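C-alpha coordinates please, single chain.
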Amino acid sequence: MGARSSYAPGTFCWVDLSTSHATAAAAFYGALFGWQTEDVPAGESVTYNAMLHLDGAPVAALYGLTDEQQAQGVRPHWLSYVSVEDVDASAQRVAQLGGTVCAGPFDVMDAGRMAVLIDPAGALLALWQAGAHHGAARVNDPGCLTSNTLVIPEPASVVDFYGDLFGWSIEEAPGSHSSWTITNDGAMNGGIMQSQAGGAPPHWAVFFTVTDTDADAALVRVGKLGGHPLMPPIDVPSGRFAVAADPQGATFCLWEGSGDD
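Here you go.
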Protein backbone atom coordinates (compact mmCIF):
# COMPACT_ATOMS: atom_id res chain seq x y z
CA MET A 1 0.00 0.00 0.00
CA GLY A 2 1.25 3.46 -0.88
CA ALA A 3 -0.11 5.24 2.21
CA ARG A 4 1.49 8.60 3.00
CA SER A 5 1.21 10.75 6.13
CA SER A 6 3.94 13.26 5.22
CA TYR A 7 6.25 14.26 2.37
CA ALA A 8 9.92 15.16 2.53
CA PRO A 9 10.78 18.59 1.07
CA GLY A 10 11.30 18.38 -2.68
CA THR A 11 8.84 15.50 -3.13
CA PHE A 12 5.81 15.58 -5.41
CA CYS A 13 2.89 15.47 -3.01
CA TRP A 14 -0.37 16.43 -4.74
CA VAL A 15 -2.17 17.15 -8.01
CA ASP A 16 -5.32 19.03 -8.83
CA LEU A 17 -7.40 19.55 -11.94
CA SER A 18 -8.66 22.89 -13.23
CA THR A 19 -11.53 22.18 -15.59
CA SER A 20 -14.26 23.82 -17.63
CA HIS A 21 -16.98 21.41 -16.44
CA ALA A 22 -16.32 20.22 -12.90
CA THR A 23 -19.33 17.96 -12.50
CA ALA A 24 -18.67 16.13 -15.76
CA ALA A 25 -14.96 15.80 -15.00
CA ALA A 26 -15.69 14.33 -11.56
CA ALA A 27 -18.00 11.77 -13.14
CA PHE A 28 -15.40 10.81 -15.77
CA TYR A 29 -12.57 10.25 -13.29
CA GLY A 30 -14.90 8.56 -10.84
CA ALA A 31 -15.83 5.98 -13.46
CA LEU A 32 -12.23 5.59 -14.66
CA PHE A 33 -10.36 5.42 -11.34
CA GLY A 34 -13.09 4.77 -8.77
CA TRP A 35 -12.74 8.20 -7.16
CA GLN A 36 -15.44 9.58 -4.88
CA THR A 37 -16.21 13.31 -4.81
CA GLU A 38 -16.48 15.43 -1.67
CA ASP A 39 -17.62 19.01 -2.17
CA VAL A 40 -15.59 21.53 -0.17
CA PRO A 41 -15.82 25.33 0.18
CA ALA A 42 -14.65 27.20 -2.91
CA GLY A 43 -12.76 30.48 -2.87
CA GLU A 44 -13.70 33.54 -4.84
CA SER A 45 -11.40 32.59 -7.72
CA VAL A 46 -13.07 29.25 -8.48
CA THR A 47 -16.60 28.17 -9.28
CA TYR A 48 -16.49 24.65 -7.82
CA ASN A 49 -14.06 22.86 -5.54
CA ALA A 50 -14.04 19.15 -4.76
CA MET A 51 -11.72 16.74 -3.01
CA LEU A 52 -11.32 13.41 -4.80
CA HIS A 53 -11.05 10.31 -2.62
CA LEU A 54 -10.20 6.67 -3.22
CA ASP A 55 -11.66 4.39 -0.56
CA GLY A 56 -11.84 7.36 1.80
CA ALA A 57 -8.29 8.63 1.19
CA PRO A 58 -7.77 12.02 -0.52
CA VAL A 59 -5.79 11.49 -3.73
CA ALA A 60 -6.45 14.65 -5.82
CA ALA A 61 -8.77 17.65 -6.15
CA LEU A 62 -10.57 19.57 -8.88
CA TYR A 63 -11.62 23.15 -9.45
CA GLY A 64 -13.96 24.80 -11.91
CA LEU A 65 -12.41 27.46 -14.12
CA THR A 66 -14.22 30.78 -13.95
CA ASP A 67 -15.73 32.38 -17.04
CA GLU A 68 -13.00 35.02 -16.88
CA GLN A 69 -10.24 32.42 -16.83
CA GLN A 70 -11.75 30.59 -19.80
CA ALA A 71 -12.13 33.88 -21.69
CA GLN A 72 -8.43 34.50 -21.08
CA GLY A 73 -7.63 31.18 -22.75
CA VAL A 74 -6.90 29.07 -19.68
CA ARG A 75 -7.42 25.48 -20.74
CA PRO A 76 -8.31 22.50 -18.50
CA HIS A 77 -5.11 21.10 -17.02
CA TRP A 78 -3.58 19.09 -14.19
CA LEU A 79 -1.24 20.94 -11.81
CA SER A 80 1.51 19.15 -9.87
CA TYR A 81 2.63 20.20 -6.37
CA VAL A 82 6.05 19.84 -4.71
CA SER A 83 6.40 19.89 -0.92
CA VAL A 84 8.59 22.65 0.56
CA GLU A 85 9.44 23.69 4.12
CA ASP A 86 9.00 27.43 3.56
CA VAL A 87 6.95 28.44 0.51
CA ASP A 88 7.81 32.14 0.88
CA ALA A 89 11.54 31.45 0.86
CA SER A 90 11.18 29.02 -2.06
CA ALA A 91 9.14 31.55 -4.04
CA GLN A 92 11.86 34.16 -3.59
CA ARG A 93 14.41 31.62 -4.77
CA VAL A 94 12.38 30.97 -7.95
CA ALA A 95 12.92 34.52 -9.20
CA GLN A 96 16.61 34.42 -8.34
CA LEU A 97 17.03 31.25 -10.41
CA GLY A 98 15.29 32.60 -13.52
CA GLY A 99 11.73 31.40 -12.98
CA THR A 100 8.58 33.42 -12.39
CA VAL A 101 6.08 33.28 -9.52
CA CYS A 102 2.68 33.80 -11.16
CA ALA A 103 0.49 33.30 -8.07
CA GLY A 104 1.06 33.63 -4.33
CA PRO A 105 2.36 32.80 -1.91
CA PHE A 106 -1.06 32.60 -0.24
CA ASP A 107 -2.83 30.59 2.43
CA VAL A 108 -5.33 27.88 1.49
CA MET A 109 -7.46 28.17 4.62
CA ASP A 110 -5.82 25.91 7.24
CA ALA A 111 -4.77 23.29 4.66
CA GLY A 112 -1.43 24.92 3.88
CA ARG A 113 0.28 27.69 1.99
CA MET A 114 1.15 27.64 -1.71
CA ALA A 115 2.57 29.45 -4.72
CA VAL A 116 2.55 28.70 -8.44
CA LEU A 117 5.67 29.14 -10.56
CA ILE A 118 6.59 29.11 -14.22
CA ASP A 119 9.96 27.47 -14.80
CA PRO A 120 12.49 28.74 -17.39
CA ALA A 121 11.02 26.35 -19.98
CA GLY A 122 7.49 27.70 -19.47
CA ALA A 123 5.92 24.89 -17.41
CA LEU A 124 3.62 25.51 -14.43
CA LEU A 125 4.37 23.93 -11.05
CA ALA A 126 2.99 24.53 -7.55
CA LEU A 127 4.89 24.79 -4.27
CA TRP A 128 3.14 23.42 -1.18
CA GLN A 129 3.89 24.13 2.49
CA ALA A 130 1.71 21.72 4.42
CA GLY A 131 -0.68 22.75 7.15
CA ALA A 132 -3.57 20.46 7.97
CA HIS A 133 -3.24 18.88 4.51
CA HIS A 134 0.08 17.21 3.72
CA GLY A 135 -0.88 15.95 0.27
CA ALA A 136 -2.16 12.70 -1.20
CA ALA A 137 -2.89 10.10 1.45
CA ARG A 138 -2.16 7.33 -1.08
CA VAL A 139 0.18 7.12 -4.07
CA ASN A 140 1.34 4.41 -6.51
CA ASP A 141 -1.64 2.13 -5.81
CA PRO A 142 -4.20 1.54 -8.60
CA GLY A 143 -6.21 4.71 -9.09
CA CYS A 144 -3.51 6.89 -7.50
CA LEU A 145 -0.84 9.30 -8.64
CA THR A 146 2.41 7.48 -9.28
CA SER A 147 4.73 9.88 -11.12
CA ASN A 148 5.22 13.37 -12.55
CA THR A 149 7.24 14.03 -15.70
CA LEU A 150 8.24 17.37 -17.18
CA VAL A 151 7.75 17.41 -20.96
CA ILE A 152 9.82 20.14 -22.64
CA PRO A 153 11.84 20.65 -25.85
CA GLU A 154 15.23 20.95 -24.11
CA PRO A 155 15.50 18.99 -20.84
CA ALA A 156 18.98 20.31 -20.10
CA SER A 157 17.60 23.86 -19.88
CA VAL A 158 16.00 23.29 -16.46
CA VAL A 159 18.50 20.98 -14.75
CA ASP A 160 20.22 23.78 -12.84
CA PHE A 161 16.94 25.53 -12.00
CA TYR A 162 15.30 22.53 -10.35
CA GLY A 163 18.53 21.23 -8.89
CA ASP A 164 19.13 24.53 -7.11
CA LEU A 165 15.47 25.07 -6.14
CA PHE A 166 14.72 21.64 -4.66
CA GLY A 167 18.09 19.95 -4.36
CA TRP A 168 17.10 17.40 -6.99
CA SER A 169 19.68 15.22 -8.68
CA ILE A 170 18.80 15.13 -12.39
CA GLU A 171 20.67 12.76 -14.69
CA GLU A 172 20.23 11.59 -18.25
CA ALA A 173 18.72 8.11 -18.33
CA PRO A 174 21.22 5.42 -19.37
CA GLY A 175 21.15 4.81 -23.11
CA SER A 176 18.74 7.69 -23.73
CA HIS A 177 19.19 11.14 -25.19
CA SER A 178 15.62 12.23 -24.61
CA SER A 179 14.78 11.39 -20.97
CA TRP A 180 16.18 12.31 -17.59
CA THR A 181 15.56 10.88 -14.12
CA ILE A 182 14.93 12.96 -11.00
CA THR A 183 15.93 11.78 -7.54
CA ASN A 184 15.21 13.60 -4.29
CA ASP A 185 17.24 12.63 -1.25
CA GLY A 186 18.12 9.35 -2.96
CA ALA A 187 14.55 8.42 -3.93
CA MET A 188 13.06 8.42 -7.42
CA ASN A 189 10.96 11.55 -7.86
CA GLY A 190 9.74 11.78 -11.45
CA GLY A 191 11.52 12.60 -14.66
CA ILE A 192 12.00 14.89 -17.63
CA MET A 193 11.16 13.92 -21.21
CA GLN A 194 12.05 15.71 -24.41
CA SER A 195 8.97 16.75 -26.37
CA GLN A 196 8.70 16.40 -30.11
CA ALA A 197 8.75 19.42 -32.38
CA GLY A 198 5.26 20.86 -32.66
CA GLY A 199 4.04 18.81 -29.72
CA ALA A 200 2.32 19.89 -26.51
CA PRO A 201 3.55 23.05 -24.76
CA PRO A 202 5.87 22.59 -21.76
CA HIS A 203 4.03 20.92 -18.89
CA TRP A 204 4.33 18.51 -15.98
CA ALA A 205 2.54 15.33 -17.06
CA VAL A 206 0.74 13.38 -14.32
CA PHE A 207 0.73 9.57 -14.26
CA PHE A 208 -1.99 7.51 -12.57
CA THR A 209 -1.69 3.75 -12.01
CA VAL A 210 -4.47 1.98 -13.89
CA THR A 211 -6.96 0.15 -11.75
CA ASP A 212 -6.95 -3.01 -13.85
CA THR A 213 -3.14 -3.08 -14.36
CA ASP A 214 -3.77 -3.02 -18.10
CA ALA A 215 -3.01 0.24 -19.92
CA ASP A 216 -4.63 -1.01 -23.14
CA ALA A 217 -7.95 -1.75 -21.44
CA ALA A 218 -7.81 1.52 -19.49
CA LEU A 219 -7.27 3.51 -22.69
CA VAL A 220 -10.29 1.83 -24.29
CA ARG A 221 -12.31 2.73 -21.21
CA VAL A 222 -11.23 6.36 -21.56
CA GLY A 223 -12.85 6.45 -25.00
CA LYS A 224 -16.04 4.76 -23.82
CA LEU A 225 -16.36 7.36 -21.04
CA GLY A 226 -16.11 10.26 -23.49
CA GLY A 227 -12.39 10.95 -23.16
CA HIS A 228 -9.76 10.92 -25.88
CA PRO A 229 -7.02 8.30 -26.30
CA LEU A 230 -3.98 10.26 -27.53
CA MET A 231 -1.12 7.74 -27.55
CA PRO A 232 -1.25 3.95 -27.29
CA PRO A 233 0.81 2.25 -24.58
CA ILE A 234 4.56 2.23 -25.08
CA ASP A 235 7.12 0.16 -23.19
CA VAL A 236 9.68 1.75 -20.87
CA PRO A 237 12.16 -0.04 -18.57
CA SER A 238 9.84 -0.08 -15.53
CA GLY A 239 6.48 -0.59 -17.22
CA ARG A 240 4.16 0.84 -19.89
CA PHE A 241 2.23 4.07 -20.23
CA ALA A 242 -0.39 5.61 -22.48
CA VAL A 243 -1.53 9.23 -22.89
CA ALA A 244 -5.14 10.36 -22.81
CA ALA A 245 -7.29 13.45 -22.40
CA ASP A 246 -10.47 13.79 -20.40
CA PRO A 247 -13.69 15.01 -22.08
CA GLN A 248 -12.77 18.63 -21.28
CA GLY A 249 -9.28 18.30 -22.79
CA ALA A 250 -6.95 17.94 -19.78
CA THR A 251 -4.20 15.43 -20.55
CA PHE A 252 -2.93 12.69 -18.23
CA CYS A 253 -1.03 9.41 -18.44
CA LEU A 254 -2.10 5.87 -17.60
CA TRP A 255 0.65 3.85 -15.94
CA GLU A 256 0.98 0.06 -15.92
CA GLY A 257 3.95 -1.04 -13.86
CA SER A 258 5.68 -0.72 -10.52
CA GLY A 259 5.78 2.37 -8.35
CA ASP A 260 8.54 3.61 -6.07
CA ASP A 261 7.34 2.92 -2.52
